[in-house]
Design a protein that fits this description.
Helix content: 55-70%
Strand order of the largest sheet: 2-3-8-5-7-6
Structural class: alpha+beta
Order of helices and strands: HHEHEEHEEHEEHEHEHEHHHHEHEHHH
Number of helices: 16
Low-confidence stretches: none
Distance between the termini: 37 Å
Largest sheet: 6 strands, mixed, barrel
Number of strands: 12
Number of domains: 2
Shape: elongated
Radius of gyration: 32 Å
Mean pLDDT: 82
Length: about 400
């Protein structure tokens, strides 16, 4: 077999360049098709990752713990004290970071306007390990501690309130007993985030909010991240066994839109792969079939001098393998170069607000996934070579006498 390969590989290579125009065209078709598949998959992956990271790193975390009924009625009445069993699990090595919070619906009032808001009482030290919001300060400062009586508001909310850092706003909420309470807060900082977060959330010290809502140390939720995604499901199962009365959910059920986008984009990339393969296969098969018809006399002569039909099939298959391989190589190089051109991020521009509506950021950061690139390239290569087996089989069934007779005629 090795002797036959030593003979057929150089012969196949020379045959490819007997018609350089056709060869270059086929390489271009394969390269363009693979480039579109890899770039499309990379952009979808970057969008999915941005959506997931924006959701998880701002507020939600990878999972949250609430009192039963809180998600349907987020009031102080649905607060809870964290059981000792869950406290132990949250301090285990599996958990990367966690933060206890008080999250309540409230009304914020400035000198000019009154708006609804979600007031979140946090421990700043814990939030810095879990969320990126403490690093998104535009003006002023972040919270200094759990007793901080200032409020940290989003840029869009401050714009709508016609207020700014250093001014005072009044917050009105319902405490645990159902009574309306209000308190004045100094705006200590302004943060940037996706538009929905900027317009909805305000942050203050957790003990400040607990005192205002008369929660006596109780909390509304615990958000946490794990060190390994694979450990999340077993950890949630353990937590539910230790605290069956609490509502413990992962980010997938808490933010179904972000999860659906993540799953859909992965499946859509596969759909695009198959679509491009079908289009490429049509072009490749037509090109190879034309090449076979033009070389009927050559194949007939090869069989007349003793080459078996199987070797003719093998030769055409080798030509196709080399040809598709060249196209795949060029496609991979173009894809890597295209991704590298956006190493500082791809600004979505006018599409940014639309991206934020589905939880993604205004800037995507596409990266080369070696495993995905290798799998998609191999799939395109193998399937494209398989698509050329029909023209190759036609070549192997050429009868020497008929081929030379037709040529002579």
């Amino acid at each position: 077999m090795m002797d036959k390969l030593h003979l057929l590989v150089p012969l196949s290579w020379r045959n490819l360049w007997r018609n350089p125009r056709r060869t270059i065209l086929t390489i271009a078709v394969v390269a363009a098709g693979l480039w579109s598949v890899l770039i499309f998959a990379t952009l979808l992956s970057a969008w999915s990752r941005s959506c997931r990271d924006t959701t998880l790193k701002l507020i939600v975390g990878q999972a949250e713990i609430h009192a039963a009924g809180y998600l349907d009625d987020p009031t102080a009445a649905h607060s809870f004290a964290l059981p000792a069993g869950l406290q132990g699990l949250l301090r285990s090595p599996v958990v990367a970071a966690y933060s206890k919070r008080v999250r309540l619906s409230a009304i914020v009032q400035s000198e000019y306007k009154t708006l609804p808001i979600t007031l979140v009482g946090v421990n700043p030290e814990a939030e810095r390990k879990l969320s990126v919001l403490p690093q998104q300060v535009l003006r002023g400062r972040y919270l200094s501690g759990p007793n901080d009586r200032g409020i940290f508001l989003g840029r869009d909310l401050l714009r709508r309130l016609k207020s700014r850092v250093g001014k005072r706003v009044v917050l009105l909420l319902q405490n645990k007993e159902g009574a309306k309470v209000e308190a004045a807060f100094a705006v200590i900082g302004e943060f940037s985030a996706p538009e929905g977060v900027e317009a909805e959330f305000g942050f203050s010290g957790i003990r400040t909010v607990q005192v205002m809502a008369k929660l006596d140390g109780r909390i509304s939720e615990v958000a946490f991240n794990v060190n390994d995604d694979a450990s999340l499901s077993p950890l949630l199962t353990s937590m539910r066994k230790r605290a069956p009365t609490l509502d413990i959910q992962s980010w997938a059920s808490l933010t179904p839109l972000a999860y659906a986008i993540s799953v859909f984009f992965d499946e859509f990339a596969i759909m695009w792969l198959w679509l491009m393969f079908v289009l490429m296969a049509i072009g490749i098969v037509n090109t190879q079939l034309m090449a076979v018809l033009e070389r009927r006399r050559e194949f007939g002569l090869l069989q007349a001098i003793g080459m078996r039909a199987q070797l003719v099939l093998f030769e055409v298959a080798i030509e196709s393998t080399i040809l598709i391989g060249l196209g795949v190589g060029v496609g991979v190089l173009l894809s890597v170069a295209s991704v590298a051109a956006f190493h500082n991020g791809l600004d979505l521009g006018f599409l940014g607000p639309g991206a934020e509506l589905v939880g993604a950021g205004r800037v995507l950061y596409p990266t080369v996934d070696p495993l995905k690139f290798a799998i998609y390239s191999l799939v395109i290569w193998v399937l494209s070579v398989a698509a050329t087996l029909w023209p190759a089989r036609r070549a192997s069934h050429v009868r020497p006498v008929e081929a030379m007779a037709r040529t002579a005629a």
